[in-house]
Amino acid sequence: MVQIRNTAAISWDLLESFLAIAEAKSIRQAAISQGVNHATLSRHLKKLEQHIGQPVFNRSNKGLALTTFGDTVYAYANGMAEQAQQLQFFLDHQGDKINGPLTISLGDSLMSSIAPAAKQLTQENPGLNVVFKVSNDLISLDKGEADIALRITESPPEHLIAIKLQDLAVAAYVQPQLLHEQGINPESLFSDVVGQLNWINWQRTIGDQDISDSIQQLVGAANIKYSVGSSAAMLDAVNAGLGAAFMLTHYIPADSGLIEIAQSRTPLPLKLWLLYHPHLRHSPKIRAAVQMISQHGKVALD
Q1: Which architecture, in CATH terms, is 100-164+271-301?
Q2: Tens digits of residue pLDDT in 175-217
């Protein structure tokens, strides 16, 4: 039977540090992700284990792993964190005024598309401050890392409110000078030029869609000479003449000078969704933002 040495309430700081360490499986990684000192987390973990009277982690050269007892502590502490976040959701979105910060998470290929909606939203609501979290890494709406997320996915999480904005088109683009250097007719079909060009593939997913394997099948593994990790880098690489690449058609500027290779549009299942947490469904700020983005979304991406 577990004997708890101290029956006083456990400081939330200790549990918060414990959760960070458990998720990172390393004190050093947890310190980096939390932006705190390594020694602080070590001290918090030591105090927690002293408080409850036994270790919550097994230590090894491979890192930290929760003990059976630690698993139970984690479940309770994580539940407390989720409850606290739900309370914060409630408090942050009280009242009928549309003002204060609104955090929107999106990938780098979507920034130009969301701008018109954000501009009109702030014009109609001068007290609103829109914060864009632009990253190709997925964020957690459950943890309050953003109020709204624009996410490219085939199947959005069932526990979130999801509004489909549009099916996204993908096509192959190339720098005209590269075609000229290789003596390729700019009007050539994809099937005729695919084996004559070097190709640039994605290092990572678009949203949570891993399309790199699909592109490899389309162009052939031997023809892929480069890979990049963001839409901005992909566009720069194609403009620099490194090769051809598949990109979201809405992301290509009209004055880019790039050529869309004929008959290269693919049926890849890329869908853009607007996501937000059910706890925010009655927030006037969220409702105004969702309405504006939904209205502008398809127009901006067409």
Answers
A1: 3-Layer(aba) Sandwich (3.40)
A2: 999 999 999 999 999 999 999 999 999 986 555 556 888 899 9
Per-residue HEC secondary structure of the chain comes to CCCCCCCCCCCHHHHHHHHHHHHHCCHHHHHHHHCCCHHHHHHHHHHHHHHHCCCCEEEECCEEEECHHHHHHHHHHHHHHHHHHHHHHHHHCCCCCCCEEEEEEECCCCHHHHHHHHHHHHHHCCCEEEEEEECCCCCCCCCCCCCEEEEECCCCCCCCEEEEEEECCEEEEECHHHHHHCCCCCCCEHHHHCCCCCEEEECCCECCECCHHHHHHHHCHHHEEEEECCHHHHHHHHHCCCCEEEEEHHHCCCCCCCEECECCCECCCCEEEEEECHHHCCCHHHHHHHHHHHHHHHHHHC
Q: Which pTM does this prediction carry?
A: 0.69
CATH number of 170-260: 3.40.190.10
Which of 226, 199, 201, 221 lies closest to 211 in space, CA to CA?
201
Domain extents for the chain? 12-92, 100-164+271-301, 170-260
Which CATH number is 12-92 given? Answer: 1.10.10.10
Quote the pLDDT of residue 299.
44
